[in-house]
Amino acid sequence: MMGPVYVITDPDASLPVAAQALSAAQGGAGAVQIRDKHISDDDFAALVSALLPQMRALGVKLIVNDRAGVALRTMADGLHIGQGDGDPRALREQMPKGMILGLSVQTVAQARRIPAGVDYIGAGPVRATATKPDHAAPVGLEGLAQIAAATALPCYAIGGIKHGDARALKTAGAVGMAVVSAVTRAPDPVAATRALLTDWSMA
């Protein structure tokens, strides 16, 4: 649906968010999620609207993190929400046909009760990560495998994912990897994205 490499932007990295997104797209990411907890909805919408045509020209899905209003207003390619960010069923009813809905899942119990309308899950965190200080307890590769086995939905591993992880993540049942620092804080984000893609294709 979105390819194996899914990059999430980091507003605290030295590279601006727009540049992070474009670098990931140029490196071959299938999807880029814009995540910034601090900017206003208007600024967020302006950023997404500016990026959308560039990302679509590169064949990359642009996903909005958490803010359903921004996703709907900009007609982004998708929306990703956490467990406490609204009712997926209600959100799906507001979303146009074809807009992707992703959901963060931290436990097997959550994976077993995903409502209809969700298109994919972000499973984890696999490892502890500094880019999301309030994350749930790390599930490890074993926990990832249990979550992936508990749902038929495509499962993207998230949380401390780095180059060299692809084989283990594939074995655990993930269809791809969602990364933040491995791309956004790399010396060359384009090359880092390409390396992850190569890693996955050879795993």
UniProtKB/TrEMBL annotation:
Pathway: Cofactor biosynthesis; thiamine diphosphate biosynthesis; thiamine phosphate from 4-amino-2-methyl-5-diphosphomethylpyrimidine and 4-methyl-5-(2-phosphoethyl)-thiazole: step 1/1. Mg(2+) binds at residues 66, 85. Keywords: Magnesium, Metal-binding, Thiamine biosynthesis, Transferase. Its cofactor is Mg(2+). 4-amino-2-methyl-5-(diphosphooxymethyl)pyrimidine binds at residues 33-37, 65, 104, 132. One of its GO terms (biological process) is thiamine biosynthetic process. 2-[(2R,5Z)-2-carboxy-4-methylthiazol-5(2H)-ylidene]ethyl phosphate binds at residues 129-131, 160, 180-181. The keyword Transferase applies. GO terms for molecular function: magnesium ion binding; thiamine-phosphate diphosphorylase activity. Its EC number is 2.5.1.3. The keyword Signal does not apply. CDD domains: TMP_TenI. Residues 5-183 form the Thiamine phosphate synthase/TenI domain. It catalyses: 2-(2-carboxy-4-methylthiazol-5-yl)ethyl phosphate + 4-amino-2-methyl-5-(diphosphooxymethyl)pyrimidine + 2 H(+) = thiamine phosphate + CO2 + diphosphate; 4-methyl-5-(2-phosphooxyethyl)-thiazole + 4-amino-2-methyl-5-(diphosphooxymethyl)pyrimidine + H(+) = thiamine phosphate + diphosphate; 2-[(2R,5Z)-2-carboxy-4-methylthiazol-5(2H)-ylidene]ethyl phosphate + 4-amino-2-methyl-5-(diphosphooxymethyl)pyrimidine + 2 H(+) = thiamine phosphate + CO2 + diphosphate. It holds the Pfam family TMP-TENI. Binds 1 Mg(2+) ion per subunit. One of its GO terms (cellular component) is cytoplasm. PANTHER family: THIAMINE-PHOSPHATE PYROPHOSPHORYLASE, THIAMINE-PHOSPHATE SYNTHASE. Belongs to the thiamine-phosphate synthase family. Condenses 4-methyl-5-(beta-hydroxyethyl)thiazole monophosphate (THZ-P) and 2-methyl-4-amino-5-hydroxymethyl pyrimidine pyrophosphate (HMP-PP) to form thiamine monophosphate (TMP). This is Thiamine-phosphate synthase.
